[in-house]
Amino acid sequence: MNSIDDIRLFLDPKSVAVIGANPNTGELAFNLVENLARWGYEGQVYPVNPAHSEVLGWKCYAEVGDIPAGVDLAVLVTPRTTIPDVIRQCGEKGVRAAVVVGQGFADAADEEGRRLQDELVEAGRRSGVRVLGPNTMGSLNPFADFSTSFLGLFDVQRRPIGVVSQSGLFFTNVGRMRLLGKAIDVGNACDVDITEALDYFAQDPEVKVVVLHIEGVRDGRRFMEVARRATRRKPVLALKTGRSEPSARAAVSHTGSLVGNDDVWNALFKQCGVVRADNLDELGDLAKAFLRLPLMKGRRVAAVSGSGGAGIMSIDACVEHGLQVADLSPATRSRLQEMSPRWHRVGNPLDLWPLVMGSPADVTKSLRTALSLLLSDRQVDGVAFFGSAWFDGLSPSLAEVIADTADAFPDKPIALSLCEGVIYDIGAEEVARKLDEAGKACVFSNPDDALRALSRLAAYAEFLRGA
Amino acid sequence: MNSIDDIRLFLDPKSVAVIGANPNTGELAFNLVENLARWGYEGQVYPVNPAHSEVLGWKCYAEVGDIPAGVDLAVLVTPRTTIPDVIRQCGEKGVRAAVVVGQGFADAADEEGRRLQDELVEAGRRSGVRVLGPNTMGSLNPFADFSTSFLGLFDVQRRPIGVVSQSGLFFTNVGRMRLLGKAIDVGNACDVDITEALDYFAQDPEVKVVVLHIEGVRDGRRFMEVARRATRRKPVLALKTGRSEPSARAAVSHTGSLVGNDDVWNALFKQCGVVRADNLDELGDLAKAFLRLPLMKGRRVAAVSGSGGAGIMSIDACVEHGLQVADLSPATRSRLQEMSPRWHRVGNPLDLWPLVMGSPADVTKSLRTALSLLLSDRQVDGVAFFGSAWFDGLSPSLAEVIADTADAFPDKPIALSLCEGVIYDIGAEEVARKLDEAGKACVFSNPDDALRALSRLAAYAEFLRGA
Question: Could you say which of 3.40.50.1240, 3.40.1080.10, 3.40.50.2300, 3.40.50.720 is the CATH number of the domain covering B1-135?
Answer without folding.
Answer: 3.40.50.720
